[in-house]
Write a structure and sequence with these properties.
The chain is of the alpha+beta class. The chain folds into 2 domains: 87 residues, Phosphorylase Kinase, domain 1 (2-Layer Sandwich), CATH 3.30.200.20; 175 residues, Aminoglycoside phosphotransferase (APH), C-terminal lobe (Aminoglycoside 3'-phosphotransferase, Chain: A, domain 2, Alpha-Beta Complex). The protein contains 9 helices and 10 strands. Strand 2 and strand 3 form a beta hairpin.
Length: 293
């Protein structure tokens, strides 16, 4: 799948008309797999990929469920949404006040509020840690065929192990991509963002996102991780299923970088480095992966 390099104002304009907003004066905030725009009047517009209608519906429903349960999270505007423009689902959100990227402590604060909630009667699928991994491997054309074949085999191995994973904590609603990049630190405290991967599954999946930042990439210090574990009440690295879930998260991070590198040459070295790490061609963990986008 190709990632758009420039924003698509025609899609934005069509979506705004359908939802009753004025697109004049819109500014792009982030253009990647999803397009994020800011409208005058503190409105954020999220344009998802074609074929992601179900995920867009889920995002809005989960945001409203979190609001009903008092969990600090980005709020969906009270309009009928998503709308479809040029085959792409589009959603509308309340713009956050000035904020910074969240911290490890912010992540665990929000997960500690999310995970105990009873599973709601919403169209939430069982967690799939490998959603879109196969498509990303096929799109990773900057890699050699040998590397892509290895990634396919690793994907198949981990998926088979996932089907017989060990028992862990009781299943709950999981965010699905719980890391500091999906938390905003506002003057009123941390706020949870991006519910595209919300599902029902083992809470360990949300905990692994922070754990691998210590064990795999070194982006989280041992002290930060110890504070995270103390706040949540468990250390997922001690669970017998950790290596499986960490492997799945590493594969996601690698194929994400490789997919983007196919159309962004400046990221090809990073994508190749991540593959080399997984294949044992680089130094031992923790590695030092650079951020993509």
């Amino acid at each position: 799948m190709k990632i758009p390099a420039v924003p698509d104002r025609a899609v934005l304009a069509e979506a705004c008309v359908l939802a009753g907003f004025e697109p004049a004066g819109a500014d792009p905030v982030r253009i990647a797999e999803n397009e994020i725009w800011r409208l005058p009047g503190k409105v954020i517009v999220r344009i998802a990929r074609a074929g992601q209608w179900k995920a867009a519906v889920r995002e809005v429903l989960v945001a409203r469920w979190l609001a009903d349960n008092g969990v600090p999270a980005v709020r969906a505007l009270p309009v009928e949404q998503p709308v479809e423009a040029a085959g792409r689902p589009v959603t509308f959100w309340v713009e956050l006040p000035p904020h910074e990227i969240g911290t490890v402590k912010d992540v665990v604060t929000l997960l500690s509020q999310l995970h105990p909630l009873p599973v709601p009667d919403l169209p939430l699928d069982p967690l799939d840690p490998f959603v879109r991994v196969a498509e990303r491997i096929e799109a990773s054309t900057s890699l050699s065929e040998d590397d892509r074949a290895w990634l396919r085999d690793r994907h198949a191995e981990l998926r088979e192990r996932w089907e017989r994973r060990p028992e862990g904590l009781p299943e709950c609603v999981v965010h699905g991509d719980a890391w500091v990049g999906n938390v905003a630190r506002t003057p009123d405290g941390p706020v949870l963002l991006d519910f595209e991967r919300a599902a029902v599954g083992p809470p360990e999946w949300d905990l692994v996102s922070t754990a691998v930042k210590m064990t795999t990439t070194g982006a989280v210090t041992e002290a930060e991780y110890a504070e995270f574990c103390e706040a949540y009440g468990t250390d997922v690295t001690k669970w017998e299923g950790y290596e499986l879930l960490a492997g799945a998260r590493e594969l996601r991070m690698t194929t994400y970088a490789a997919q983007h590198a196919a159309t962004r040459p400046e990221w090809q070295a990073e994508a190749q480095y991540r593959v080399d790490c997984l294949r044992g061609r680089a130094e031992s963990r923790p590695w030092h992966w650079k951020g993509i986008l």
